[in-house]
Design a protein that fits this description.
elongated; two-stranded antiparallel sheet; 36 helices; about 60% helix; Nucleotidyltransferase, domain 5; 9 strands
Amino acid sequence: MVNPLCSASKKCPNEDDFSDSCESAKKLYPINTDLIKKEIKADEEEESGCEETWLKGFSVYIDEVTQSSTQSIVADVSLNTFADAVLDSSTEFQGSVNEHARTVFDVDKPFQPPAENVPPQCFGTRRLRFQSAWYTDFPWLHYSPQLKAVLCFTCGKAESMGLLGLTRRKDSVFTVLGFSNWKKAREKFGYHQKSKSHEFATWKLMHALQNQKREAALEQQRKVRQAIPAICLNKLICAIRFLIHRGHTFQSHESIEESLFELLKFLGQDNEMFRYWLLTNQNFTSTEIQHEIISLMSHEIISFITKDVSQGSVYYSVIVDCIQNTDSQQLSLCLRYLDSEMQAQEEFIGFIDPAEETGTSAADLILDILDRNSLPIDLLRGIAFEGSTSLSRCYIESCSLLKQKQPLAMFVHCAAPCSSLVARDSSQASTLLHQTLYSVNDLCNLFSKSIKYRFLFAEVTPKPDSSTRNLSSSKWCVNLSVVNVVIQHYGLIIEGLGEMESGTGEGGVKAHFVLEKILEGNTYVSLLIIRSIMESLNILNIKVDDQNLLMSSTLKKVRLVKEILARLRQEATVVDLLRQAEEAVTKFNLMPVAIPQPRRLCHQPQQSADPLSFDNKEDFLKNEYLKMLDAAISQIENRFMQQGFIEYCDLEDVLLCAGKGGESDRIIEEKLAFLSKYPEFNVRMLKVQLEMFAHKKSFSSLAEAVSIYKSVSPEVKEFFSELGKFLKLLLIIPVCTNDNEQVCCPFQRLRTVLEFTTAETRSSDVAVCFVNETRLDNLCLETVAHNFVHGV
């Protein structure tokens, strides 16, 4: 019975081609149905009930039901135009194969050259030739140039595919030996065409070809079902990667989910299949799925970073910075290593949230990360701390604990010597001076948004430095030049704040509180005190050409500043500063300079008098002055007078002075003795190589020495092997204040992360993906999709 749904369906695009192929097959493979049924019944009795079904389903005589079912198979596959573009599959029949037959019949159709190209058969003077008409009457004829005879393409093809098996229905003349007797050719050809062997081979071949077609259709359908979700998942991962690039993943959860869904709808405008998949799998746009995919991308990026560290560098260093989160402090962790070109690379690998704000907790987390990423602590050569020491003493303790685990690692502070940051941290020792400095910083931020008054600080406000790693300096605007501008234009600043105070919104409120602080005489005298100290600290910012590339010159500047501050403390006086402040109070109509009264909340009990109470404002101001001076000296010692930094400078001196007569051999040997605890160094051989290298080449900095070493041949590098390890050790310690833009680029993007996530908990996975944008672009999305599907 004919299926009405099949018969009423539209004609599929491939039906005409299929019908044409069937008509040609009738001509090429004529079949005697009765003979086939009789033969099958004799040899395969157990399948006799199915013979007629197979003949109807796979012979060229196709009834209505078979044709409809075939159409449905083809239509089912061709409906999905989306998958057709990505699928290119073929199915090959597997079976026992006759190797001789394979070589002869390894073609798609019979080889039928022109009749004149077929050698004639000679009987004395009589020559019998092959006739072209035989190709028309017997289309299965296949000429073999090797045999110089014709074969039956149908029987030979079936034999080569292993379809005939051990059956006795074989005609070796037309499958192996070849026929070349043109005298009785038509008679023999007709007899073979009517033979049981030819009929059986024809049926078997048609049966196999139809099976192949059916299996290919099913295989294509299976690939379609697998390929569509895979392609759609890759589109989803691409969309999430795009949102990470644009910074949308820093928004709230609702905004992230909405942004992703809108982007996916845009991608599905010209893709009906993707749009259908998106509507039926909306859970894939949920926040949980997004975070899981971002986490997989982050882990993949970190694995590539640690792989580069392990393969391309002998040593590595850890850079730790302390940053403020919403309700706690976080650690940012970076790895510094050398690539194959001896170029320092610094890679951000995530934020760490210690359970307790203690050095032990932080050190344990850092060691755990190094262990999980297969980074041996034996190769750790540098532990660098960055940021405000006053906010992160517990994390300095963590670095000390790490140094205990690896004594060969140098503990240094990797921030550049900056007077403004030292002054900011030192001011915390005095409440009065600390409040004044932060009020000036708020003033700079307010005026930078004002079209009328932004010119005032435009020239003196420090621009974001792309060559610094410091993450906390991007929002700090106060330096010596800014303080001088505030003192010189005090009246204009009061006028500007008065205008901004009258405005509405957040700006007006901020201007009101800043104006209240500026109108105090204590603020003016505090600015004078801060300027006096910052003028001494400003020596740290002086750059002396190439000498600034040397850490030894940095150490000399630090020691000089420390001596100046110590001398200033001995001669400290505020008489002149107080006189200038009194004049400003009268000129600008400020509140008089006075000793601030301590605030007492209403629920606090009455306390005894402060033992450090002062009889006059001069003594009070001098005490605040000395507090900041002492704090500045302490800051300099904590940042730049560390043992690791001094040892590094000694090693740099050895590199620059060995063999040049700058220092005696005894001093050089004493400084090199520090390397004797490193198992990879031969100190005596290193001293010899340093002297030989200095006699051969001239250099005045570490960068020049590295450039010369890189330019020599591999044989020379092998000769100076100890020198190469020495240079790599100096490069791997992150004390350089002038690293190139490539090294500091991760810190620029990391500052962007901190700027956009000040009011919410930061995601380490999002930050890793955003900061390492180049690695994110090169990420294999198929690998991420595979890990997502298999839960890796």
